[in-house]
Design brief:
alpha+beta
Length: 681
């Protein structure tokens, strides 16, 4: 077995590989850019080597710099993680020439399947059903428009070397095809150093389901079930689960056997994923093969007990797979939510900055795992488990140079319903402050009827949130529970305030029992009957809630029992109440005396400033280009400028007709959130 492995990656996946290598007794080497000097993966590794400036094309994807780090540390093998050089055949070739093992498939398999154009041709020759498209290289935007018309709109414009949603655009007309071609080409060049583009038919109402395969160098290959990855935004997966709530056993078997056959056809070894588009009748079509470890691999590990990273390392060392297909068992249900540094209230635009608070929920084991070829641990019958794969820490910084993913929160349970319930609690318990993030949106998805039913497609987010995400409106029953909890917490805080030191000897402040709780546009008059164990909150007009908790003023996370049910709230103190976040809702909760509530109703409402005639920068980023001039009349939907952030180009468009009166920024300028880019008459 190897003594030392270099991890040619960063962030969450680098930390993930280090954990398994440490379990196997293998030393690890991290590489890092200037931006990652204090990163978690650098702190966790046994050694770390600096490889250059922050941009990936000057550090993490420069093969010569990675090779020099290997020589400097004497690493015997390299795990590439995902992204960066993980599907670069030239990197695998360079490692082979150096006599260093690549923890991944052979160079020939990467070339055959890692390139989306080549892989589709091979799949067609092998008799695999594929989505209609143009497999040749496309020279320019004019040719892209011509091909798009031949295929028929809508079409998907893809980077040949792409992955992770980078270099992908959907075009519904000629203008979008032209714009999408250039943006995809630019993103592909910046992210992968390869700007080749191809186009295929965009299948409407599809489900995205993928099969995990694992092959060794002795001719053995197995599939480890499927992953449902249909909930995506901008072609980037957001929620994954295993198994799929849609597949039956026969379809699963057919897809799995086809995936393994395809892998064997190209001499594949290591872990890989074959992705399919599946229609409503369970017809499936080969989409692509990812010749690497997938971001969402934890859900497969949770339901199979197989550590995929360990198996990749053992296969690279020449070991035979410890499992045959008949040994693979899918146990329970696992769900993964990707926590991104993206602000859902700003159309999911990237958010950068320092994590002033980062407190994930406590992790618990899911059950038996295959360790060193032997099963260890017992299944927690009737229990649930939580796993959080991350590459950040409290006080760390989210950089503008890399992918915005902060963590992958996973839950496992015996049933899908229980796994969803565990995820709801885990999301409510996850504390993140300092940046915009998508925790509220993830909570909303977990409560969405279409997700709960399992009846979703890749169009889920576009269909269910067509105008973006602006928060959650909680049901009246949920509001009453939160109102009762806040009334009880306010009483505790008021008692604390009566005991403050230094008060006048002849003055005693008494805490009343009557309160008015206002939240989400509703107002509840309550009377609190408290005792040593907790409080009973009685609502005017009927209904009462028994609230118990060990919450104390200052705690930012409150776990309460309300009528015997667990309620988890993120709590922040504001004047006359709390800022409460729960189940995707962000609530300003006011708890006042009846007289205070009466006076508050007379107060005028403060309106936000008028920015309707301004184009504000929606996230920190770099102005790539400005498409208009002062005095120019613009139409609704017209492109105004392009802002680049976290390797993604974002085209800002006019929301209505107007005339440009002033432009405050030009190409090359770095802007902060809400900086005024231009103004209109």
């Amino acid at each position: 077995m190897f003594d030392k492995i270099l991890i040619a990656n960063r962030g969450e996946i680098a930390c993930r590989v280090i954990k398994t290598a440490r379990k196997m007794g293998i030393k690890t080497v991290a590489i890092y850019s200037d931006a990652d000097k204090q990163a978690l993966h650098v702190q966790m590794a046994d050694e770390a080597v600096h490889i250059g400036p922050p941009p990936a094309n000057q550090s993490y994807i420069v093969i010569d710099k990675v090779m020099e780090a290997i020589r400097q540390t004497g690493a015997q093998a390299v795990h590439p993680g995902y992204g960066f050089l993980s599907e670069n055949s030239k990197f695998a070739e360079a490692l082979e020439a150096e006599g260093v093992a690549f923890v991944g498939p052979p160079k020939g398999a990467i070339e055959a399947m890692g390139d989306k154009i080549t892989s589709k041709k091979i799949a067609q020759e092998a008799g695999v059903s594929t989505v209609p498209g143009y497999m040749g290289l496309i020279a320019d935007a004019d040719e892209a428009v011509k091909i798009s018309n031949q295929i028929g709109y809508p079409v998907m414009i893809k980077a040949s070397a792409g992955g992770g949603g980078k270099g992908m655009r959907i075009a519904w007309n000629d203008e979008e095809a032209r714009e999408g071609f250039q943006s995809s080409k630019n993103e592909a060049a910046n992210s992968f150093g390869d700007d080749r583009i191809f186009i295929e038919k965009f299948v409407t109402q599809p489900r995205h389901i993928e099969i995990q395969v694992l092959c060794d160098k002795h001719g053995n290959g197995i599939y480890l079930g499927e992953r449902e990855c249909s909930i995506q935004r901008r072609n980037q997966k957001v929620v994954e689960e295993a198994p799929s709530p849609f597949l039956d056993e026969d379809t699963r078997k057919a897809m799995g056997e086809q995936a393994v056959a395809l892998a064997k056809a190209v001499g594949y070894t290591s872990a890989g994923t074959v992705e399919f588009i599946v229609d409503g009748d369970k017809n499936f079509y080969f989409l692509e093969m990812n010749t690497r470890l997938q971001v969402e691999h934890p859900v497969t590990e949770l339901i199979t007990g197989v550590d995929l990273v360990e198996q990749m390392i053992r296969v690279a060392d020449g070991a035979e797979l410890p499992l045959r297909q008949e040994d693979v068992t899918l146990t329970g249900w696992a769900i993964e939510n990707r926590l991104y540094a993206e602000d859902p209230y700003r159309n999911f635009l990237p958010s950068i900055g320092r994590l002033t608070r980062y407190r994930p929920p406590a992790e618990t084991a899911a059950g038996p795992m295959l360790v060193n070829g032997k099963w260890q641990g017992d299944a927690p019958a009737g229990e649930t488990a939580v796993r959080n794969d991350t590459g950040v820490y409290e006080g760390g910084e989210i950089s503008m140079y890399y992918d915005p993913m902060i963590a992958k929160l996973c839950t496992w349970a015996p049933t899908r319903e229980e796994a969803i319930g565990a995820m709801r609690t885990a999301l409510d318990s996850f504390e993140v402050e300092g940046i915009g993030h998508n925790l509220p949106f993830l909570s909303a998805v977990m409560d969405h009827p279409k997700f709960i039913s399992g009846d979703m497609t890749t169009a889920f987010i576009a269909e269910e949130y067509p105008d973006g995400f602006d928060g959650v409106e909680l049901h009246s029953d949920d509001l009453r529970k939160i109102a009762a909890a806040c009334a009880a917490m306010h009483r505790v805080a008021e008692i604390r305030r009566t005991r403050v030191s230094g008060r006048m000897d002849n003055h005693e402040r008494k805490v009343g029992t009557e309160w008015v709780v206002a939240l989400q546009g509703q107002s509840f008059s309550v009377v609190i009957d408290a005792d040593r164990e907790g409080a009973t909150v009685n609502f005017e007009g009927g209904g009462s809630y028994r609230v118990t908790s060990d919450w104390t003023p200052g705690d930012q996370l409150a776990t309460l029992q309300v009528n015997g049910e667990t309620l988890v709230l993120k709590v922040g103190k504001v004047t006359q109440g709390f800022r409460v976040r729960s189940r995707g809702a962000d609530l300003a909760v006011k708890v006042r005396t009846p007289r205070q509530a009466e006076l508050a109703r007379l107060m005028p409402e403060k309106l936000p400033p008028d920015t309707s005639k301004m184009l504000l920068c929606p996230m920190p980023g770099l102005i790539v280009k400005v498409d208009v001039e002062v005095g120019q009349e613009v139409q609704e939907g017209q492109a105004l400028c392009t802002v680049e952030a976290m390797k993604m180009e974002n085209i800002l468009r006019a929301e209505k007709k107007g005339v440009v009166s002033k432009i405050n920024a030009s190409a090359g300028d770095s802007l902060a959130v809400d900086d005024v880019i231009m103004e209109f008459e």
